[in-house]
């Protein structure tokens, strides 16, 4: 009977060992499945990236073809607009220089010299400064500067070039401030020369 009990007691140990072995195998199998799933996800991600790159390349090729076709058709009009744009810039520069120097200085200097020969010296200086500022603002700015701003904004929006619009906007702002400061500096020098003489 003792032998039978010993054999009966040894059976649960073997069953527990077998169960623990099965659990270990299940864990190992689960880990293997997880490891196998990761490369599949990575492969899917790589496939998605490759498809996205291919679609992007195809879209870029189509866009380049459309741009090439559009450029072949509309090249003369774009060149004409660019020439008109450069002409407007050159005209605005020339008009601003011409109107601010040859008109304002010519009129104001001759008036100041004419009035300087008379009694009213300070009146001549004030009139010359006032006329120079008036002519440089109301003639050179409103005729040439605002015309160049209007043409530059219109043509840059029509052409659709943002960097050209920024360049012309900065140029227009500088062209607004420079004709105002230029006559003041010139007439301050004239005032000093007249005062010292």
Quick tags:
single chain; MFS_trans_sf; transmembrane; disordered N terminus; transmembrane helix; membrane; about 200 residues
Account of the protein in words:
The protein is an all-alpha fold. The chain has a domain at 76-196. The protein contains three helices and no strands. It has helices spanning 2-117, 121-159, 162-196. The longest helix has 116 residues, at 2-117. The relative contact order is 0.08. The chain crosses the membrane at residues 87-107, 113-131, 138-157, 163-181. Residues 30-41 have a biased composition (Basic residues).
Task: Give a quick summary of the entry.
The protein is mainly alpha-helical.
Secondary structure topology:
Layout: H1 2-117, H2 121-159, H3 162-196
Percent of residues in beta strands = under 5%
Coarse morphology? elongated
Could you say which structural class the secondary elements and strand pairing correspond to? mainly alpha
How many DSSP helices? Answer: 3
**Which range best describes the helical content: under 10%, 10-25%, 25-40%, 40-55%, 55-70% or over 70%?**
over 70%
**Poorly predicted segments:** 1-10
How do the helices and strands follow one another from N- to C-terminus?
Answer: HHH
Say how many strands there are: 0
Q: What is the rounded distance between the termini?
A: 145 Å
């Amino acid at each position: 009977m003792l032998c039978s009990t010993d054999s009966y007691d040894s059976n649960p140990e073997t069953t527990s060992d077998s169960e623990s072995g099965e659990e270990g195998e299940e864990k190992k199998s689960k880990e293997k499945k997880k490891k196998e799933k990761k490369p599949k996800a990575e492969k899917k991600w790589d496939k998605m990236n490759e498809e996205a790159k291919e679609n992007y390349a195809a879209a870029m090729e189509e866009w380049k073809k459309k741009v090439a076709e559009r450029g072949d058709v509309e090249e003369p009009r774009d060149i004409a607009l660019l020439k008109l744009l450069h002409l407007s810039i050159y005209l605005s520069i020339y008009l601003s220089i011409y109107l601010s120097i040859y008109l304002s200085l010519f009129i104001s200097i001759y008036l100041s010299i004419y009035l300087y020969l008379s009694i009213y010296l300070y009146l001549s200086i004030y009139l010359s400064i006032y006329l120079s500022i008036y002519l440089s603002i109301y003639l050179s700015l409103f005729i040439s500067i605002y015309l160049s701003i209007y043409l530059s904004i219109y043509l840059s929006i029509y052409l659709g070039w943002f960097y050209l619009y920024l360049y012309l906007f900065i140029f227009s702002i500088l062209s607004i401030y420079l004709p105002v400061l230029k006559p003041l500096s010139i007439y301050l020098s004239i005032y000093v020369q007249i005062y010292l003489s």
